[in-house]
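Table 4 source record.
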Amino acid sequence: MARGENSGGNISGKLNVSFLWLSLQIPLGVAALGGLAYLALALWSAATFPRHRVNLKRPPKKQRPPMSLLKPLRGAETELETCLSSFFQLKYPRFELIFAVRTPDDPAAEVVWRLRARFPSVRARLLFTGEPPYANAKVFSLEKMAQAAAHDILVITDSDTRVPPNYLDSVAAAFADPSVGAVTHPYRGVASGDMWSRLEALGMTTEFMAGVIVAERLEGMKFALGPSMAIRRDCLSAIGGFAAMRDYLADDFILGAWTARAGRKVLLLPQPVEHIATARGFLTNFKHRLRWNRSSRFSRPAGYPGQGLTYGLVWALLFAAVAPWPASLAVVAAALLLRGGLALALAKRLGDRAVKARLWLLPLQDSLSWASWVGGFLGRTIEWRGERYALLDGGRFQPLSRPVALTEAARAAGQGAR
């Protein structure tokens, strides 16, 4: 009797294990197939990029509108002087550079002063904004710079962005269409040193930009990208100005989304810029990825779970770990082929020569990105430039390390945008 009971227990245990294994195979198989479909779509989108064909022929000097370039700064981060110097070397007839820091003792101020001395013919100013009364300190700096700007086309770039000398030509060509309210640029990642920055740079070019190009292909641009974007002053006023974005973390996403909602075109231009991956070390780099994912989760809660399908290679590897090998290896082979092809297609479109030598790092890069996507579902706090913030519903956030007291004028401006 004991032997029969033991035999029955073994059979029951085997059935339980088989059921558990099957319960893993089915969802992972569905996720893997969905990931393969996404990779195929992304490869097609990359091969046919850009969706909007902008005439990039350089117009006569008299027809090129003057522009104000706004650069919010804080701290002398990696490659800052190299990035900023690329803006002093722009080949464009009429533009001004406006920089902003909180206080004169910010290390970034010294970098700006050195560059002004090196390029005395370039019109450049440095503003001291003081402590920000907004949750989003960058938005407060942008508001102050926009008030000081002389021109009606405002170009906004991050401090870790590097541009070619003809950067403004494509912006001018796009704004020749009066229906265009804002433009943004794709970018390629550039490593700043260690392996973790190389992985992030690889992800910028081959993973993040894939999602951007797919979104642009399917529905047009409904957002902007922080490394480089430009907006007409009248369009900015129509969406409430920078003050209306004071409580939002993803101000670049909001700027593009509100512009599109106002009925103005947002274009993703074909000319790429360079975005420096400055987060070195595993922990710093992973926190940076986690911040971006949590921001995405709160900015677009309905679409964030669907981001999981973009990790086709990771799902294929997980499926192979629990499914019979002949079938699962075919899925992995297809994922590797599509993921590698996508990476090479984007590298060609964005001019990233480093991707080819780093293809072997794609499984590790995608696994880190997948882990940070999972982490995006957990918790609602982030760290950004040495400060801690709590994320709120609707993409808003509030600082935990400094008080924020909005002025009545700023609060009214934000309400007017609604």
